[in-house]
C-alpha cells in the first residue's frame, strides 16, 4: 500500500484466508485503507476508544473561542442532554440524573471551569461518566442515533419538548456528529435520514406517537 508492505502472521491457513476475504470485501466495497496500518478504515474506527463524553469536551473546546455567550450556553445544554442519554444503562454506581446533568453543565462541559476545583459529588459523577459514556463509534448505528433524537423530543417530565428546544439541541447534535466525521471517529453523520425526517417517539402515557418535522422541528402526534 503506497509502496509499503504489511504482513500479518496467522496460526492456521483458515484464519489467513478469512482475513484475506475481509480485505477483498473492503476493497470491492471501495472502502479506504489506513496507510499507517494497512487495514480498512472501518476496522480502525471500531477499535477507537473515544467516548461521546470525551468527544463532547473536544467539540465544545473547539467551538468555545468563537461562540457568543448565548451560543455557548445552548451548546452546553444540548450536549448535557445528549451525553446523559449516551451512557451504558447497566453501568453500576450511576449517579442521580439531576446530579449528572448538573456536573456536566457546571464542570464537565464548561471549559471556563475545567481548571476549577470540583465539589466531591460532582467529581464522582464525572468520574463515573468517563467509563460509562458510550464510544462515539456506536453512533455509526442508525438505531443509536434514533435513541438520541427520540430523547431530544422529550422534556424531563416526559412531555413533548418545545419546538425551539428540539431544533436547537438537534442542531448541536448534528454539528457534533459532523465534527466526529471530520475527526474520522465515525463514517457518516446519521442524524438525518435520506428523507430528512426524524424518528417517531412513542409516549407510553398517552399511547400516541410524536415526530419532529425537519422544518418546524415541532413534535406532533400521529
List keywords for this structure.
single chain, 222 residues, mainly alpha, 3-stranded antiparallel β-sheet, 8 helices, 48% helix, globular
Global Rg: 20 Å
Question: How would a textbook summarize the main sheet?
Answer: 3 strands, antiparallel
Helix-and-strand structural type: mainly alpha
Strand residues, percent? 5-15%
Number of helical stretches of at least 4 residues: 8
Helix content bin: 40-55%
pLDDT < 50 stretches: 194-199, 201-205, 209-218
Mean pLDDT: 79
> What pattern of helices and strands is seen along the backbone?
HHHHHHHHEEE
Report the count of strand segments.
Answer: 3
| Beginning-to-end CA distance, first to last residue | 53 Å
Shape: globular
Short structural description:
The chain is mainly alpha-helical and 222 residues long. Helices cover 48% and strands 5% of the residues. The chain has helices at residues 13-28, 41-46, 52-63, 69-85, 97-108, 120-132, 142-152, 163-182, and strands spanning 200-203, 208-212, 219-221.
Characterize the structure shown:
By secondary structure, the chain is mainly α. It has eight helices and three strands; from the N terminus they run H-H-H-H-H-H-H-H-E-E-E. It has helices spanning 13-28, 41-46, 52-63, 69-85, 97-108, 120-132, 142-152, 163-182; strands at residues 200-203, 208-212, 219-221. It has a three-stranded antiparallel β-sheet with strand order 1-2-3, with no helix packed on it. Strand 2 (208-212) and strand 3 (219-221) form a beta hairpin. Helix 3 packs antiparallel against helix 4 (69-85), helix 4 crosses helix 8 and helix 5 packs across helix 6. The N and C termini lie far apart (53 Å).
